[in-house]
Specification:
Layout lengths: L1 H5 L3 H16 L6 H11 L4 H10 L9 H11 L5
Helix pairs in contact: 3-4
GO cellular component, one term: cytosol
Keywords: Aminoacyl-tRNA synthetase, ATP-binding, Ligase, Nucleotide-binding, Protein biosynthesis
EC number: 6.1.1.4
Length: 81
């Protein structure tokens, strides 16, 4: 999935995530650490759903980092000289 994202093969990245979920449904036990990694991969594609899943996995903090948002604001701010 990481390689697909970097190569902008978004459709193949989503397909790989769907294949993973289809396989995970068949597991008797689903390790929390594996589900957390899946949610991290999902977050760029479906941020709202990923946030909900992240909280349901027991996390209180958000997946989104506000330092990234601040950096975007700084980069997009134009100051007349």
């Amino acid at each position: 999935v990481s390689e697909d994202i970097e190569g902008t093969g978004y459709n193949t990245a989503i397909s790989a995530m769907m294949e993973f979920m289809n396989a995970a449904y068949k597991w008797e036990n689903r390790p929390k650490s594996v589900l957390e990694k899946f949610v991290l991969l999902l977050s760029p594609f479906a941020p709202h759903i990923a946030e909900e899943l992240w909280q349901r996995l027991g996390h209180v903090d958000s997946l989104a980092t506000f330092s990234d948002l601040r950096q975007l604001i700084i980069l997009n701010t134009k100051t007349p000289v």
